[in-house]
Specification:
The chain is α+β, with helices and mostly antiparallel strands. It has helices at 10-15, 59-73, 109-122, 150-170, 173-185, 243-252, 259-278, 283-297, and strands at residues 24-30, 37-43, 46-53, 82-87, 93-98, 135-137, 140-142, 198-200, 209-211, 217-219, 225-227. The chain has 2 domains: 10-98, Phosphorylase Kinase, domain 1; 109-297, Aminoglycoside 3'-phosphotransferase, Chain: A, domain 2 (Alpha-Beta Complex), CATH 3.90.1200.10. The strands form 4 sheets. The protein has a 5-stranded antiparallel sheet with strand order 1-2-3-5-4.
Length: 299
């Protein structure tokens, strides 16, 4: 079927001009997202992947596009190439990107580990820790203000921000106060560690990991920033990383002293975010991590 021309449609206008297409042959819905609507636009010049959101302005998609572009520019792991972000005339926004034909599995864990480590090694920032724009983790704002000190950045803009949200949203003074004690006392976890600002996907769980039709790993829907490479494993509780993933990763990015002691610290950010997004079912996991660290560090 040939889709009829629609007036004042910026998605169609871009595809038929800068997208080098002369005809859109089919538009079909793509499932999987819970925040945005996703569609596949088939044309005589290939296919495009389009996400739209009728209630949010273009800043969210601008952050995604900058993250995808930064990862794409490392020429390491495959990500969808971003093409265009804009506003919809009826309100809301859109992003157009490369359409990748996914394979039947998530691909080889060993290759994923290698490619992710290569991205971390290649993507470095001279500005420190942070990103050029704020973005979102799920639908939660993620503050990426530049900082030269990783412990300060992670304590303030990651754990601290989520703890404040929990207090504001649920009146949860207990998790806030205990969490702030942890933030102030977590320095010893980084003794003898060199922390470099590496480009992170930022939200690496199983739903954001796939493979292309050739079996090569693909990562998508990022919440990018420059941070400690170990923070990339913060969603490992629902990412399914196996032994071959980690062994391949550490061949490229060697494991640093105290890695195991810091793993839960990076999971805590995502448990807190899930608590703020989805409710009390995630509170006990977050509080358990905080309590364990407070016993270990004895602040």
């Amino acid at each position: 079927m040939t889709v009829a021309a629609m007036s004042n449609d910026p998605i169609r206008e871009w595809i038929l001009s800068e997208g080098n297409s002369t005809q859109i042959t089919r538009i079909s819905s793509v499932g999987g997202g819970c925040i945005n609507l996703a569609s596949r636009y088939d044309t005589d010049a290939g296919s495009f992947f389009v996400k739209t959101n009728r209630s949010i302005g273009p800043s969210m998609f601008e952050g995604e596009a900058l993250g995808l572009g930064a990862m794409y520019d490392t020429r390491t792991i495959r990500v969808p190439r971003p093409y265009k972000v804009g506003s919809l005339p009826t309100g809301g926004s859109f992003i157009i990107m490369e359409f990748i034909e996914f394979g039947v599995s998530r691909g080889d864990q060993s290759v994923l580990g290698t490619k992710l480590a290569e991205m971390h090694k290649a993507g470095k920032s001279e500005k420190g820790f942070g990103f050029d724009v704020n973005n979102t983790i799920g639908s939660t704002p993620q503050i990426n203000r530049w900082a030269s000190d990783w412990i300060q950045f992670y304590g303030e803009h990651r754990l601290g921000y989520q703890l404040k949200l929990a207090r504001e949203q649920y009146g949860d003074n207990s998790i806030y106060e205990k969490g702030q004690r942890l933030v102030k006392s977590m320095g010893p976890l980084f003794e003898d560690v060199v922390v470099e600002p590496c480009l992170l996907h930022g939200d690496l769980w199983s739903g954001n990991i796939s493979s292309d039709k050739n079996g090569k790993p693909v990562i998508l829907d990022p919440a990018c920033y420059y941070g400690h490479n170990e923070a990339e494993f913060g969603m490992s509780w629902c990412a399914g990383f196996g032994g071959s993933f980690y062994s391949s990763y550490f061949k490229v990015m060697p494991k640093q002293p105290g890695f195991e002691k810091r793993r839960d610290l990076y999971m805590l950010y995502h448990y807190l975010n899930h608590y703020n997004l989805f409710g009390s079912g995630y509170r006990s996991s977050a509080m358990s991590i905080i309590d364990d660290y407070l016993r270990m560090l004895k602040p």
